[in-house]
From TrEMBL, chain B:
Residues 30-257 form the FIST domain. Pfam families: FIST, FIST_C. Residues 258-393 form the FIST C-domain domain. This is FIST domain-containing protein. Transmembrane segments: none annotated.
Length: 85, 411
């Protein structure tokens, strides 16, 4: 039961992160940013959890610099940090 | 005092050895860390590579590739961008600086072994430059990436580079000479996307130059499109080949046959798109699919139709949403981007440009090439006509991707 709950939480996390990224980046770039940065920290997107979120956020900052300003990135990072899953 | 010296040169001599010698005499200087070479696809790539290897000093890294070269009715591309305009030539840039370290690594047999060879090239390069791959400072390190586009695996390689490191790349696809006759009559159309390094010139290959730089630099991607109200969800995709080239076959858009949805949005018959082996490139380049991030468009080009499907040279996944795009003023967009770049760097010591052959063709038909050359002419430059442009860890089409080098002493 606990395992199922954890999976549901993880699923919510990636879906909530996507909800923050897509309006700024389009689905194409948002999915790619999530996929490649999850690979960089050694997890599948569906396995991203709150424990790994800080390192994930650290990694996506550089990726986002190709598309957004530092201010816009800071805003996105804050929105993801504020997520309540 | 300059911290970086960049020299460029080109030759239009037909003989490979003579052309190489002429270019080398123009770019030769002390302390060359890197030579980047671009050439027309009509040159014999093996002879050209031998000629370069005979001249380059042992301590100088070397990387290069031929341009997308096609000469068919209504579609003639292949020229290199030089400070004196677009030329049918061999061109090269030498970069000399005590503040730059470069390593070039070749990858072969990439169709079958892209993951192993690309990871190895990256790891070996990082070791040579004493870099911690996971913690590279993106303001002090970048990569150049050239890939044989016939391999169809550049998307995978680029993503593998970024997933394994912190390194962002710029570059372009090497396509070489594409023969119309084989394309039309044998169905084997496709180029010879040679990759040049010190090891030789090879197809089914790619190469990276990892550059550790104490010189400021910027990378950028420039496109001239905006979205129309026509929005498509890609609902069915499979992989196929057009001649030798790997393509993604979009079978359905919005749950309906892709060709029907696309032509309906455009209000034209399927014949406006040409036929499978002779696509109407001039029409298709005006109506690509894509999306926006802020003011910039990212483009997915429709290469041809096949049955009720559309063929796309770039990887696309089901579930993605793309818009039918419309063009804006190319010359103006490029002028604004170059101005912004000059302001950011303060001084530009060199430019390396990767311009999609379709963008160049469009500029030709609008008679805008002279205006573009004038805009680019702010520093020694070389430019390649590409098929697919690489930006960060992603590949796009109908784009101009550029690397601009500054100089700390002149900022």
């Amino acid at each position: 039961m606990l395992k199922n709950n954890m999976n549901a939480t993880d699923k919510n996390l990636i879906s909530e992160i996507k909800n923050v990224l897509v309006p700024k980046l389009n689905e194409f770039i948002a999915d790619s940013v999530i996929r490649v940065n999850c690979r960089r920290i050694g997890v599948e997107p569906q396995d991203l959890n709150m424990d790994k979120l800080p390192i994930f956020l650290e990694k996506i900052e550089v990726s986002l610099l190709l598309f957004l300003t530092k201010e816009e990135i800071a805003d996105i990072i804050q929105k993801i940090k504020n997520l309540r899953i | 005092m300059q911290n970086i010296k960049i020299k460029t040169g080109f030759s239009q001599k037909e003989n490979e050895e003579e052309a190489t010698k002429e270019v080398f005499e123009k770019i030769n200087q002390d302390n060359m860390k890197l030579i980047i070479m671009f050439c027309h696809g009509n040159y014999n790539q093996l002879k050209l590579n031998r000629a370069w290897r005979a001249l380059i000093p042992p301590e100088t890294a070397f990387i290069g590739c031929p341009s997308l070269t096609m000469n068919i009715p209504f579609f003639r591309v292949g020229d290199m961008l030089t400070n004196q305009g677009y030329k049918d030539c061999v061109s090269a840039m030498s970069i000399a600086s005590d503040k730059i370290e470069v390593v070039v690594n070749l990858m072969r047999d990439i169709k079958n072994n892209w993951k192993k060879t690309s990871t190895q090239a990256l790891v070996d390069g990082a070791k040579t430059l004493n870099l911690d791959l996971k913690n590279i400072d993106n303001e002090k390190c970048f990569g150049l990436f050239f890939c044989d586009t016939m391999s169809g695996c550049e998307d995978d390689i680029l993503e593998n580079f970024y997933a394994s490191s912190n390194l962002l790349f710029v570059g372009g696809g090497s396509t070489g000479k594409m023969e119309l006759s084989s394309w039309l009559f044998k169905g084997k159309g496709g180029g010879s996307g040679y990759i040049h390094t010190r090891e030789g010139a090879f197809t089914d290959a790619a190469a990276i130059a990892i550059i550790k730089s104490g010189i400021p630099f910027k990378i950028d991607l420039i496109t001239n499109f905006y979205p129309t109200q026509h929005k498509f969800e890609v609902t069915k995709v499979s992989e196929t080949h057009m001649g030798k080239m790997k393509m993604w076959k979009i079978e359905e858009l919005n749950g309906r046959p892709a060709l029907e949805e696309y032509t309906k949005a455009l209000g034209v018959s399927k014949w406006s798109l040409g036929i499978e082996h002779l696509p109407n490139i001039k029409y298709l380049l005006n109506h690509p699919l894509g999306f926006m991030v802020k003011e910039r468009a990212y483009i997915r080009f429709i290469g041809a139709r096949k049955g009720k499907s559309l063929l796309m040279p770039s990887k696309i996944e089901e579930g993605k949403t793309l818009y039918l795009m419309e063009k804006t003023d190319l010359a103006e967009v490029i002028r604004q981007s170059i101005d912004k770049l000059k302001n950011q760097l303060g001084f530009v010591s060199g430019l390396v440009l990767f311009q999609c052959g379709l963008q160049k063709l469009d500029a030709d038909s609008l008679k805008e090439t002279a205006s573009l050359v004038k805009t680019f002419n702010i520093a020694p430059l070389i430019g390649l006509t590409t098929f697919r442009e690489y930006y960060g860890w992603l590949a796009f089409e109908q784009s101009l991707v550029l690397l601009a080098l500054g100089d700390v002493a002149k900022k």
